[in-house]
């Protein structure tokens, strides 16, 4: 039998001492952590009645454009369940951390305390905004009365974060899920997009990254100069009241519809679309053009489904819908457009309004297949009657002295509505120079004819081409 030596006793004592010291340090660290618990963590755990290690979290992430909706959804929920509750902010280095990460970072010796609430001004319309909570949390209760904490973080473009995050903390996952679902219901009920006119793209309005709110146009039928019967046909196909939609459903008829306006540039297609926007005052309108068609088509159709009755306007669709026979590999954006038009069910109250300058190169699958385009209307060059109506319409802000416009109308044969608009503008500029003291300038045949001669001059060939003359 081996006898323990002095070295063995020293090693055993050292191990025992190390084990005891480790236990002592762990106990001391727990005591220090408990004493040093931040006001932020104390508020959350005190409200929930359990330590952070036992708190499940339910997280929902939204596109940055939904920031106002998330804020309004939380506010509506809190007003219903705990109207006396107040928002709390967080102080400390918050770079790239979620609220839950900040709460758990206490163990890694980060310092986060209760602080002032961070707000961000967010657009809710063409001329309205709200101050939405950018970073904050609020103590409230779940529908069953159990305590929960709701936290929100808005998008932070400077840090490359374009999402809005909702986090719900509670002692049970069921309570967190119930609150998250209720907040999302309130978001839909208080949706800031519903009934708005919006254009997809990069917005400079209050940092709203993806959507720009536009004023709804207010045009009279007399402001739209088209051949007899054209505007009536367009309105009959597109403009529909809620009661008419309900009756159509009751008769088993589909609601989705497609309108294609085609014709040379400058004839009034976009102007006609603007008139329809004003007539569809209860519908949400989403406008796509240029780069936005390439990036946000799917987002627009998703919003259109959610916000029906709605209208998706795709301007200059020929830029993406050129016939596939003209390209070697086809057009992926065109395929996506076709898929999205097919993907919206016939029962959805969604209207596609497309405009094109080149119907001859339009994809046949888009322009001819039933269910995608139900009505194609030509917007032609104005005839003699149309040119006179346009002339008087655009000159309505002046003292127009033109009892007989036949000479000007005859000399402007073959021009577009855009050309006539520019003609009146140039005649008005001449009159402003000739009548410096007039509150409202007088336009007569001589002034308009001089402006017309200028536009018809050989030196203005490119200008005429751009205006459609």
Description:
This protein is an alpha/beta fold. The protein folds into three domains: 41-189, no CATH class; 199-203 and 209-378, P-loop containing nucleotide triphosphate hydrolases (Rossmann fold, 3-Layer(aba) Sandwich); 384-467, Helicase, Ruva Protein, domain 3, CATH 1.10.8. Helices cover 41% and strands 19% of the residues. The protein is built from 16 helices and 16 strands. The chain has helices spanning 6-35, 39-48, 67-81, 99-104, 173-189, 230-238, 242-250, 269-279, 291-307, 332-343, 364-367, 384-394, 406-411, 417-434, 445-456, 461-467; strands spanning 57-63, 87-91, 113-115, 118-123, 129-141, 147-153, 163-170, 197-200, 211-214, 257-262, 284-288, 310-314, 350-356, 375-378, 399-401, 442-444. Helix 14 crosses helix 15. The mean pLDDT is 84. InterPro entries: 26S_Proteasome_ATPase, AAA+_ATPase, ATPase_AAA_core, P-loop_NTPase. It comes from Lentzea flava. Belongs to the AAA ATPase family. Pfam families: AAA.
């Amino acid at each position: 039998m081996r006898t323990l030596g002095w070295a063995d006793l020293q090693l055993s004592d050292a191990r025992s001492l190390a084990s005891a010291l480790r236990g002592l340090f762990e106990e001391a660290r727990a005591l220090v952590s408990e004493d040093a618990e931040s006001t932020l963590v104390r508020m959350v755990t005190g409200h929930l009645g359990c330590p952070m290690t036992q708190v499940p979290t339910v997280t929902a992430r939204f596109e940055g454009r939904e920031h106002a909706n998330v804020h309004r959804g939380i506010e509506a929920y809190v007003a219903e369940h705990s109207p006396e509750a107040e928002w709390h902010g967080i102080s400390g280095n918050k770079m790239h951390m979620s609220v839950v990460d900040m709460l758990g970072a206490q163990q890694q010796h980060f310092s986060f305390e209760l602080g002032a609430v961070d707000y961000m001004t967010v657009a809710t319309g063409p001329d309205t905004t709200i101050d939405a909570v950018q970073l904050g949390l609020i103590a409230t209760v779940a529908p069953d009365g159990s305590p929960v904490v709701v936290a929100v973080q808005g998008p932070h473009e400077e840090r490359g974060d374009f999402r809005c995050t909702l986090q719900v903390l509670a002692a049970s996952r069921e309570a967190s899920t119930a609150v998250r679902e209720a907040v999302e219901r309130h978001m839909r009920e208080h949706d800031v997009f519903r009934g708005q006119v919006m254009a997809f793209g990069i917005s400079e309005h209050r940092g709203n990254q993806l959507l720009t709110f536009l004023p709804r146009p207010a045009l009279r039928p007399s402001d739209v100069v088209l051949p007899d019967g054209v505007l009536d046909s367009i309105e009959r196909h597109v403009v529909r009241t809620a009661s008419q939609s309900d009756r159509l459903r009751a008769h088993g008829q589909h609601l989705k519809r497609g309108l294609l306006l085609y014709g040379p540039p400058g004839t009034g297609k976009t102007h006609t679309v603007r008139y329809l926007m004003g007539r569809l005052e209860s519908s949400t309108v989403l406008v796509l053009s240029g780069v936005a068609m390439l990036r946000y088509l799917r987002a627009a159709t998703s919003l259109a489904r959610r916000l029906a009755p709605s209208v998706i306007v795709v301007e200059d669709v020929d830029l993406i819908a050129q016939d596939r026979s003209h390209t070697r590999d086809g057009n992926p954006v065109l395929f996506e457009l076709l898929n999205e038009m097919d993907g919206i069910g016939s029962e959805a109250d969604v209207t596609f309004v497309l405009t094109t300058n080149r119907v001859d190169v339009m994809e046949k699958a888009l322009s001819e297949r039933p269910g995608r385009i139900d009505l194609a209307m030509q917007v032609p060059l104005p005839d003699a009657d149309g040119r006179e109506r346009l002339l008087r319409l655009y000159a309505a802000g002046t003292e127009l002295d033109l009892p007989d416009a036949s000479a000007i109308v005859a000399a402007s044969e073959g021009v577009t509505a855009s050309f006539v608009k520019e003609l009146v503008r140039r005649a008005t500029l001449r009159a402003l120079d000739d009548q410096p003291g007039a509150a409202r300038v007088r336009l007569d045949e001589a002034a308009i004819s001089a402006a017309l001669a200028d536009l018809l001059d050989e030196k203005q060939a490119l200008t005429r081409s751009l205006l459609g003359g």
